[in-house]
Amino acid sequence: MVSIKWKDNLKLIIPLFLFTIVSIISIYSSQKMLSQSYNNLFIKQILWYILGYICLILFSKSKGNFLYKYSYILYIFGILTLVLVLIFGTESNGAKCWFNIPGIGSIQPSEFMKIFLILEIAKILDENSKKNLSKNFQNEIRVIFKCLIITLIPAILTFLEPDTGIVFIYFSITFIMLFIYGIRYRWFVSFFGIIAILLAAFLYLFFVKQDLFIDIFGTNFFYRMDRLLDWSDGSGMQLTNALAATGSAGLFGYGLNNTPIYFPEPQTDFIFSVFSSNFGFFGSIILISLIIYFDMQIIRVGINSDNQYKYIISGIIAMLIFQQVQNIGMNIGLLPITGITLPFISYGGSSLLSYMMILGIVLNINNKNKHFNK
User: Fold this and answer.
1) Could you give the CA distance from residue 349 to residue 125 in angstroms, rounded to a whole number?
2) Alpha carbons 237 and 244: distance in angstroms, whole number
3) What number of other Cβ atoms are within 10 A of residue 63's Cβ?
4) What is the extent of the structural domain holding 112?
Protein backbone atom coordinates (compact mmCIF):
# COMPACT_ATOMS: atom_id res chain seq x y z
CA MET A 1 0.00 0.00 0.00
CA VAL A 2 1.50 3.32 -1.04
CA SER A 3 0.89 6.56 0.76
CA ILE A 4 -2.04 8.52 -0.57
CA LYS A 5 -1.36 10.89 -3.46
CA TRP A 6 -3.64 13.85 -3.06
CA LYS A 7 -3.26 14.84 -6.71
CA ASP A 8 -5.03 11.60 -7.67
CA ASN A 9 -8.01 12.58 -5.54
CA LEU A 10 -8.41 16.27 -6.35
CA LYS A 11 -11.65 15.58 -8.21
CA LEU A 12 -13.13 14.60 -4.84
CA ILE A 13 -11.16 16.93 -2.56
CA ILE A 14 -11.99 20.15 -4.45
CA PRO A 15 -15.80 19.58 -4.33
CA LEU A 16 -15.46 18.70 -0.65
CA PHE A 17 -13.64 21.97 0.02
CA LEU A 18 -16.42 23.86 -1.81
CA PHE A 19 -19.05 21.97 0.22
CA THR A 20 -17.22 23.12 3.36
CA ILE A 21 -17.54 26.77 2.30
CA VAL A 22 -21.21 26.38 1.30
CA SER A 23 -22.00 24.65 4.60
CA ILE A 24 -20.36 27.27 6.80
CA ILE A 25 -21.86 30.30 5.05
CA SER A 26 -25.33 28.69 4.90
CA ILE A 27 -25.28 27.79 8.59
CA TYR A 28 -24.05 31.30 9.38
CA SER A 29 -27.01 32.67 7.42
CA SER A 30 -29.46 30.29 9.12
CA GLN A 31 -28.55 31.66 12.56
CA LYS A 32 -30.61 34.77 11.80
CA MET A 33 -33.73 32.58 12.16
CA LEU A 34 -32.57 30.84 15.34
CA SER A 35 -32.46 31.88 18.98
CA GLN A 36 -29.44 33.56 20.58
CA SER A 37 -28.21 30.21 21.89
CA TYR A 38 -27.35 29.21 18.32
CA ASN A 39 -25.12 32.23 17.63
CA ASN A 40 -21.95 30.13 17.49
CA LEU A 41 -23.41 27.35 15.35
CA PHE A 42 -21.21 28.05 12.32
CA ILE A 43 -18.13 28.02 14.57
CA LYS A 44 -19.14 24.58 15.83
CA GLN A 45 -19.52 23.44 12.22
CA ILE A 46 -15.99 24.68 11.48
CA LEU A 47 -14.71 22.65 14.44
CA TRP A 48 -16.64 19.57 13.28
CA TYR A 49 -15.16 20.03 9.82
CA ILE A 50 -11.63 20.24 11.24
CA LEU A 51 -12.23 16.99 13.13
CA GLY A 52 -13.84 15.55 10.00
CA TYR A 53 -10.81 16.32 7.85
CA ILE A 54 -8.61 14.57 10.43
CA CYS A 55 -10.89 11.51 10.23
CA LEU A 56 -10.79 11.66 6.43
CA ILE A 57 -6.99 11.64 6.39
CA LEU A 58 -6.79 8.77 8.88
CA PHE A 59 -9.30 6.64 6.98
CA SER A 60 -7.75 7.41 3.60
CA LYS A 61 -4.29 6.39 4.85
CA SER A 62 -5.35 3.22 6.66
CA LYS A 63 -3.34 0.19 5.62
CA GLY A 64 -4.68 -3.25 4.91
CA ASN A 65 -8.34 -4.23 5.14
CA PHE A 66 -8.96 -3.69 8.85
CA LEU A 67 -12.40 -2.07 8.42
CA TYR A 68 -13.56 -4.74 6.01
CA LYS A 69 -12.02 -7.68 7.87
CA TYR A 70 -13.66 -6.74 11.19
CA SER A 71 -16.89 -5.31 9.78
CA TYR A 72 -18.95 -7.74 11.88
CA ILE A 73 -17.39 -6.34 15.08
CA LEU A 74 -18.18 -2.79 13.96
CA TYR A 75 -21.70 -3.90 13.07
CA ILE A 76 -22.26 -5.46 16.52
CA PHE A 77 -20.83 -2.32 18.14
CA GLY A 78 -23.27 -0.22 16.11
CA ILE A 79 -26.22 -2.35 17.21
CA LEU A 80 -25.18 -2.05 20.87
CA THR A 81 -25.04 1.75 20.59
CA LEU A 82 -28.54 1.79 19.06
CA VAL A 83 -29.82 -0.27 21.99
CA LEU A 84 -28.04 1.90 24.54
CA VAL A 85 -29.33 5.16 23.03
CA LEU A 86 -32.90 3.90 23.51
CA ILE A 87 -32.13 3.36 27.21
CA PHE A 88 -29.71 6.16 28.09
CA GLY A 89 -30.11 8.60 25.19
CA THR A 90 -31.14 12.24 25.51
CA GLU A 91 -34.71 12.92 24.40
CA SER A 92 -35.40 15.91 22.16
CA ASN A 93 -38.65 16.73 20.33
CA GLY A 94 -40.06 13.34 21.22
CA ALA A 95 -37.07 11.41 19.81
CA LYS A 96 -34.31 9.53 21.62
CA CYS A 97 -31.57 9.50 18.99
CA TRP A 98 -28.55 11.03 20.72
CA PHE A 99 -26.00 10.58 23.46
CA ASN A 100 -25.30 13.93 25.09
CA ILE A 101 -21.59 14.08 25.90
CA PRO A 102 -20.59 17.11 28.04
CA GLY A 103 -18.04 19.33 26.34
CA ILE A 104 -18.49 17.59 22.99
CA GLY A 105 -22.18 17.71 22.14
CA SER A 106 -24.66 15.18 20.85
CA ILE A 107 -23.58 11.97 19.13
CA GLN A 108 -26.11 10.12 16.97
CA PRO A 109 -25.25 6.39 16.67
CA SER A 110 -27.55 5.77 13.68
CA GLU A 111 -25.35 8.02 11.51
CA PHE A 112 -22.34 5.74 12.06
CA MET A 113 -24.51 2.64 11.72
CA LYS A 114 -24.84 3.48 8.02
CA ILE A 115 -21.10 2.92 7.59
CA PHE A 116 -21.12 -0.35 9.53
CA LEU A 117 -24.10 -1.62 7.53
CA ILE A 118 -22.39 -0.88 4.21
CA LEU A 119 -19.20 -2.67 5.28
CA GLU A 120 -21.02 -5.75 6.62
CA ILE A 121 -23.28 -6.20 3.60
CA ALA A 122 -20.29 -5.70 1.28
CA LYS A 123 -18.48 -8.48 3.13
CA ILE A 124 -21.47 -10.85 2.78
CA LEU A 125 -21.81 -10.14 -0.94
CA ASP A 126 -18.08 -10.41 -1.58
CA GLU A 127 -17.83 -13.76 0.23
CA ASN A 128 -20.68 -15.12 -1.88
CA SER A 129 -19.10 -13.80 -5.08
CA LYS A 130 -15.80 -15.53 -4.26
CA LYS A 131 -17.61 -18.85 -3.82
CA ASN A 132 -18.76 -18.58 -7.45
CA LEU A 133 -22.17 -19.87 -6.50
CA SER A 134 -24.74 -19.93 -9.30
CA LYS A 135 -27.51 -17.40 -8.87
CA ASN A 136 -30.27 -19.97 -8.49
CA PHE A 137 -33.33 -19.65 -6.28
CA GLN A 138 -31.74 -21.17 -3.14
CA ASN A 139 -28.52 -19.17 -3.27
CA GLU A 140 -30.29 -15.91 -4.04
CA ILE A 141 -32.82 -16.34 -1.24
CA ARG A 142 -29.97 -17.10 1.16
CA VAL A 143 -28.11 -13.90 0.24
CA ILE A 144 -31.28 -11.80 0.32
CA PHE A 145 -32.29 -13.24 3.70
CA LYS A 146 -28.87 -12.51 5.23
CA CYS A 147 -28.82 -8.93 3.95
CA LEU A 148 -32.41 -8.22 5.04
CA ILE A 149 -31.80 -9.55 8.56
CA ILE A 150 -28.61 -7.48 8.80
CA THR A 151 -30.67 -4.45 7.73
CA LEU A 152 -33.83 -5.10 9.74
CA ILE A 153 -32.11 -5.17 13.14
CA PRO A 154 -30.75 -1.59 13.02
CA ALA A 155 -33.85 -0.46 11.10
CA ILE A 156 -36.20 -1.58 13.88
CA LEU A 157 -34.01 -0.06 16.60
CA THR A 158 -33.72 3.23 14.68
CA PHE A 159 -37.45 3.30 13.99
CA LEU A 160 -38.09 3.02 17.74
CA GLU A 161 -36.03 6.16 18.46
CA PRO A 162 -37.87 7.29 16.20
CA ASP A 163 -35.84 8.29 13.10
CA THR A 164 -37.81 7.18 10.07
CA GLY A 165 -35.55 8.99 7.60
CA ILE A 166 -32.48 6.92 8.41
CA VAL A 167 -34.54 3.72 8.21
CA PHE A 168 -35.24 4.61 4.56
CA ILE A 169 -31.51 5.12 4.04
CA TYR A 170 -30.69 1.67 5.47
CA PHE A 171 -33.02 -0.04 3.01
CA SER A 172 -31.84 2.10 0.08
CA ILE A 173 -28.28 1.00 0.81
CA THR A 174 -29.27 -2.67 0.92
CA PHE A 175 -31.37 -2.66 -2.26
CA ILE A 176 -28.73 -0.92 -4.36
CA MET A 177 -25.96 -3.20 -3.08
CA LEU A 178 -28.07 -6.28 -3.92
CA PHE A 179 -28.76 -4.81 -7.35
CA ILE A 180 -25.01 -4.32 -8.01
CA TYR A 181 -24.39 -7.85 -6.74
CA GLY A 182 -26.64 -9.10 -9.54
CA ILE A 183 -29.79 -10.34 -7.83
CA ARG A 184 -32.32 -11.04 -10.57
CA TYR A 185 -34.95 -8.38 -11.24
CA ARG A 186 -37.87 -10.61 -10.33
CA TRP A 187 -36.92 -10.35 -6.66
CA PHE A 188 -37.16 -6.57 -6.79
CA VAL A 189 -40.45 -6.71 -8.68
CA SER A 190 -41.88 -9.16 -6.11
CA PHE A 191 -40.63 -7.13 -3.18
CA PHE A 192 -41.94 -3.80 -4.41
CA GLY A 193 -45.24 -5.46 -5.33
CA ILE A 194 -45.65 -6.66 -1.74
CA ILE A 195 -44.60 -3.23 -0.43
CA ALA A 196 -47.18 -1.55 -2.68
CA ILE A 197 -49.97 -3.79 -1.32
CA LEU A 198 -48.94 -3.20 2.30
CA LEU A 199 -48.56 0.53 1.71
CA ALA A 200 -52.02 0.72 0.15
CA ALA A 201 -53.53 -1.03 3.18
CA PHE A 202 -51.54 1.21 5.53
CA LEU A 203 -52.70 4.41 3.81
CA TYR A 204 -56.30 3.15 3.72
CA LEU A 205 -56.22 2.80 7.51
CA PHE A 206 -54.55 6.21 7.92
CA PHE A 207 -56.99 8.15 5.75
CA VAL A 208 -60.23 6.16 6.09
CA LYS A 209 -60.05 4.25 9.38
CA GLN A 210 -58.14 6.66 11.59
CA ASP A 211 -59.51 5.35 14.90
CA LEU A 212 -58.41 1.83 14.00
CA PHE A 213 -55.04 3.18 12.84
CA ILE A 214 -54.49 4.88 16.22
CA ASP A 215 -55.56 1.73 18.07
CA ILE A 216 -52.96 -0.30 16.16
CA PHE A 217 -50.04 2.13 15.86
CA GLY A 218 -50.70 4.69 18.60
CA THR A 219 -51.32 8.44 18.62
CA ASN A 220 -47.64 9.40 18.43
CA PHE A 221 -47.12 7.45 15.22
CA PHE A 222 -50.31 8.93 13.75
CA TYR A 223 -48.95 12.46 14.20
CA ARG A 224 -45.60 11.43 12.76
CA MET A 225 -47.38 10.18 9.65
CA ASP A 226 -49.51 13.32 9.49
CA ARG A 227 -46.36 15.47 9.48
CA LEU A 228 -44.79 13.21 6.85
CA LEU A 229 -47.75 13.41 4.48
CA ASP A 230 -48.64 17.10 4.77
CA TRP A 231 -46.22 17.87 1.90
CA SER A 232 -48.74 16.48 -0.63
CA ASP A 233 -51.09 19.45 -0.29
CA GLY A 234 -48.35 21.98 0.46
CA SER A 235 -49.60 22.47 3.99
CA GLY A 236 -47.43 23.06 7.02
CA MET A 237 -45.70 26.28 7.99
CA GLN A 238 -42.22 24.85 7.51
CA LEU A 239 -42.74 23.85 3.88
CA THR A 240 -44.92 26.85 2.99
CA ASN A 241 -42.38 29.37 4.28
CA ALA A 242 -39.41 27.52 2.81
CA LEU A 243 -41.08 27.52 -0.61
CA ALA A 244 -41.87 31.22 -0.26
CA ALA A 245 -38.25 32.03 0.58
CA THR A 246 -36.92 29.97 -2.32
CA GLY A 247 -39.55 31.00 -4.86
CA SER A 248 -39.13 34.72 -4.26
CA ALA A 249 -35.32 34.66 -4.41
CA GLY A 250 -35.17 35.16 -8.18
CA LEU A 251 -32.04 34.49 -10.23
CA PHE A 252 -29.43 35.72 -7.76
CA GLY A 253 -31.17 35.60 -4.36
CA TYR A 254 -31.39 38.04 -1.48
CA GLY A 255 -27.70 37.79 -0.58
CA LEU A 256 -25.85 36.18 2.31
CA ASN A 257 -27.67 36.30 5.64
CA ASN A 258 -30.84 37.68 4.05
CA THR A 259 -33.39 34.87 4.15
CA PRO A 260 -36.67 36.86 4.05
CA ILE A 261 -38.98 34.59 6.06
CA TYR A 262 -38.71 32.24 9.04
CA PHE A 263 -39.04 28.46 8.80
CA PRO A 264 -38.04 25.79 11.38
CA GLU A 265 -34.83 23.74 11.22
CA PRO A 266 -33.04 26.01 8.70
CA GLN A 267 -29.61 24.74 9.79
CA THR A 268 -30.37 21.04 9.18
CA ASP A 269 -33.42 19.80 7.26
CA PHE A 270 -33.96 23.03 5.30
CA ILE A 271 -30.40 24.20 4.72
CA PHE A 272 -30.96 24.03 0.94
CA SER A 273 -33.80 26.55 1.25
CA VAL A 274 -31.48 28.89 3.16
CA PHE A 275 -28.85 28.63 0.43
CA SER A 276 -31.44 29.03 -2.34
CA SER A 277 -32.99 32.12 -0.78
CA ASN A 278 -29.54 33.67 -0.36
CA PHE A 279 -28.09 32.86 -3.79
CA GLY A 280 -31.14 32.32 -5.97
CA PHE A 281 -31.72 30.05 -8.94
CA PHE A 282 -28.19 30.33 -10.33
CA GLY A 283 -26.62 29.53 -6.97
CA SER A 284 -28.91 26.51 -6.55
CA ILE A 285 -28.05 25.19 -10.02
CA ILE A 286 -24.33 25.55 -9.30
CA LEU A 287 -24.68 23.68 -6.00
CA ILE A 288 -26.73 20.87 -7.56
CA SER A 289 -24.22 20.60 -10.42
CA LEU A 290 -21.38 20.36 -7.91
CA ILE A 291 -23.25 17.59 -6.04
CA ILE A 292 -23.78 15.64 -9.30
CA TYR A 293 -20.12 16.04 -10.27
CA PHE A 294 -19.04 14.82 -6.81
CA ASP A 295 -21.31 11.76 -7.04
CA MET A 296 -20.03 10.94 -10.54
CA GLN A 297 -16.45 10.91 -9.25
CA ILE A 298 -17.40 8.43 -6.51
CA ILE A 299 -19.17 6.26 -9.10
CA ARG A 300 -15.99 6.38 -11.21
CA VAL A 301 -14.04 4.99 -8.24
CA GLY A 302 -16.59 2.17 -7.95
CA ILE A 303 -16.36 1.28 -11.64
CA ASN A 304 -12.59 0.86 -11.30
CA SER A 305 -12.87 -1.29 -8.15
CA ASP A 306 -12.88 -5.03 -7.48
CA ASN A 307 -15.99 -6.71 -6.07
CA GLN A 308 -15.50 -5.99 -2.38
CA TYR A 309 -14.75 -2.32 -2.94
CA LYS A 310 -17.35 -2.05 -5.69
CA TYR A 311 -20.05 -3.15 -3.24
CA ILE A 312 -18.83 -0.64 -0.65
CA ILE A 313 -18.89 2.20 -3.18
CA SER A 314 -22.39 1.18 -4.35
CA GLY A 315 -23.64 1.38 -0.76
CA ILE A 316 -21.99 4.77 -0.26
CA ILE A 317 -23.41 6.25 -3.46
CA ALA A 318 -26.87 4.83 -2.66
CA MET A 319 -26.78 6.55 0.73
CA LEU A 320 -25.56 9.87 -0.65
CA ILE A 321 -27.90 10.08 -3.64
CA PHE A 322 -30.93 9.07 -1.58
CA GLN A 323 -30.19 11.77 0.99
CA GLN A 324 -29.42 14.41 -1.62
CA VAL A 325 -32.57 13.75 -3.65
CA GLN A 326 -34.76 13.42 -0.55
CA ASN A 327 -33.46 16.57 1.13
CA ILE A 328 -33.61 18.81 -1.93
CA GLY A 329 -36.93 17.25 -2.96
CA MET A 330 -38.56 17.96 0.41
CA ASN A 331 -37.14 21.51 0.38
CA ILE A 332 -38.95 22.28 -2.88
CA GLY A 333 -42.16 20.38 -2.01
CA LEU A 334 -41.70 17.37 -4.30
CA LEU A 335 -41.08 14.78 -1.58
CA PRO A 336 -42.29 14.18 2.00
CA ILE A 337 -40.53 15.92 4.91
CA THR A 338 -38.55 13.13 6.56
CA GLY A 339 -35.90 15.00 8.53
CA ILE A 340 -33.09 13.80 6.26
CA THR A 341 -30.16 16.22 6.09
CA LEU A 342 -28.13 17.30 3.06
CA PRO A 343 -24.73 15.54 3.20
CA PHE A 344 -21.72 17.79 3.87
CA ILE A 345 -23.96 20.90 3.94
CA SER A 346 -26.39 20.58 6.87
CA TYR A 347 -25.24 21.21 10.43
CA GLY A 348 -24.51 18.13 12.51
CA GLY A 349 -21.46 16.64 14.18
CA SER A 350 -22.32 12.95 13.85
CA SER A 351 -23.61 13.18 10.31
CA LEU A 352 -20.65 15.26 9.11
CA LEU A 353 -18.11 12.96 10.76
CA SER A 354 -19.79 9.91 9.21
CA TYR A 355 -19.66 11.49 5.73
CA MET A 356 -16.01 12.44 6.16
CA MET A 357 -15.16 8.90 7.29
CA ILE A 358 -17.04 7.55 4.28
CA LEU A 359 -15.17 9.85 1.91
CA GLY A 360 -11.93 8.74 3.57
CA ILE A 361 -12.90 5.15 2.69
CA VAL A 362 -13.59 6.23 -0.92
CA LEU A 363 -10.17 7.91 -1.15
CA ASN A 364 -8.56 4.81 0.35
CA ILE A 365 -10.24 2.60 -2.25
CA ASN A 366 -9.28 5.01 -5.04
CA ASN A 367 -5.68 4.89 -3.87
CA LYS A 368 -5.74 1.08 -3.84
CA ASN A 369 -7.16 1.06 -7.38
CA LYS A 370 -4.35 3.29 -8.66
CA HIS A 371 -1.76 1.19 -6.82
CA PHE A 372 -2.94 -2.13 -8.27
CA ASN A 373 -3.50 -0.73 -11.77
CA LYS A 374 0.11 0.38 -12.09
Assistant:
1) 31
2) 10
3) 8
4) 65-183
Query: How far is 278 from 256, CA to CA, in rounded Å?
Result: 5
Tell me, what's the pLDDT at 3?
A: 43
Q: What type of residue is 168?
A: F
Q: What is the mean pLDDT of the chain?
A: 87
**Global pTM value:** 0.88
3 state SS for 121-157: HHHHHHHHHHCCCCCCHHHHHHHHHHHHHHHHHHHHH
Q: Are residues 227 and 116 part of one domain?
A: no
For 336, phi then psi, to 5°, come to -60, 150
User: Which residue, among 152, 174, 100, 165, has the nearest Cα to 337 in the 3D structure?
Assistant: 165
Q: β-strand 95-101 against 105-107: which pairing, if any?
A: antiparallel
Higher-confidence residue of 282 and 201: namely 282
User: Does position 1 have pLDDT exceeding 60, yes or no?
Assistant: no
CA distance 120 to 75: 7
Chain-centroid distance of CA 303 in Å reads 22
Domain count, the chain: 3
Q: Are 314 and 180 in contact (CB under 8 A)?
A: yes
